[in-house]
Each structure stands twice: as structure tokens, then as C-alpha cells.
Give the backbone structure.
Amino acid sequence: MKTVKLITQLVLFSFLISGCEDDIEGHKIININFTNALTGVGIDSIHCFIGKPGFPYYRTESETLSDKNGNCRLETDFYSSSRSYFVISEDLNFDSQKLFTYRGNDATNKYRLKGNKPYINLGKNTEFKLNFQLIPLTKIVISCEFKKELQGYRNYEFFEKGESIYKLSRGSRYINDKWLVIDKDTDICYVNSTSETKLVYSIKNSANESVYSKAVTIDSVAIRNKTLHVVYD
């Protein structure tokens, strides 16, 4: 159960939890269920934990993996001064306000939480029952080539029903991020496994202004060999 321990996460959770009033202190029980958002079937091996702020990293108080039915349970003793918080392990490879996660140690078996990132105030109740739906993701390889010279960062942004899901940005190996006609490259991305995804691929300059932009629709079910080729022309 390896979890990335970032100071930025610590600052965020400390901010959210600070200033709480009238907390219910004492022993806490959290029952969690993870299901496939499309089939309703439980998903095993999803890691979640209760953390506590510390420096330079947070400290794990309790952790668990969901079982074959998607169920798991966490327990801890909570006090207002402890500022403990509940976390679903997050895949930080995604630049997103959405929560992306994976099963156990298999970082290729990825899911996205339906809805927004959860915030559970442990001071509000003694026992919690949490149900989370996870959208299974499909891995695709995006290959690209250039028909003209462009300068800036290569940028992918993925949309579902008009909503931005996540972004991926890449710089060139050349000085000033210049892309040449001879250049070819590939990226591994993940999209909703059963619905269409709109991909906007662009080149953006240092001021985050788009100097080139095109869009393509990805049908992750029908896409041949899970590969997509895009051209900057």
C-alpha cells in the first residue's frame, strides 16, 4: 500500500478541517463501499485511510483495502486537536479536480470517482456509511506528428458532456519548446470506458495562450487497438 505523501495535500486537509466547532470526539467507525458506477458490482483492492497532519508528511492512523464485495472498514479515535481526515488513495498523475484512483498495486487498473472529491467531516458523527461509485477507465495510446513547426507546450484536455475531466501537458526536448516537422511522440492516457470523450489537443505558449487547437471525439469502445493518432497540421 504505497501512498504518495505530499505536503500540498497536508496543507489542503489542514485548511479544510481547521476552525471546526462542536466536534463529536471519541471513537469513529467508517464503513465504506466501492462499486462500479456502470454495473453496480463491488470493486476490490481500493486503498483508503485515515491520516493525521504532520511535518513534513502526514501520518497514517488507519488504512484498509476493499474486499471482493467492495466493502472495507476504518476505525480511529478522533479529537478536535488531532485534525484527522478520511482519504481515498489518489492517482496524482492526473491534473484534475476529480479524484482518480486504482486497485491495489496495479497502477494500470484505473478508476475515476463519480462526482467530486469527497470531504468527510469526522467531527460530525460517530459512525459513517460511505458509498462511492467508480467509473472504470480505458487506457489509450495517443501518437502525434507535426506537419509544421510549432512552439509551445503540447496540451491534451479531456471532456465529457462539456465538462473538463483532466489535462496532460508535455514540453519539447528542444530549447524554448519547439516542435519540428520530424517530431513524433506518444502519450498514455485514460478515458471513460463506455462513453464518448472529447479530446482537445493544442499547443500553448508560455502565457498559456493557444497557438494551435483541434478537437477529436474518442469512442473508447470502438477505437481500434486502443490507439489514437493526431496530427498537428
In short: The two ends are 44 Å apart (CA to CA).
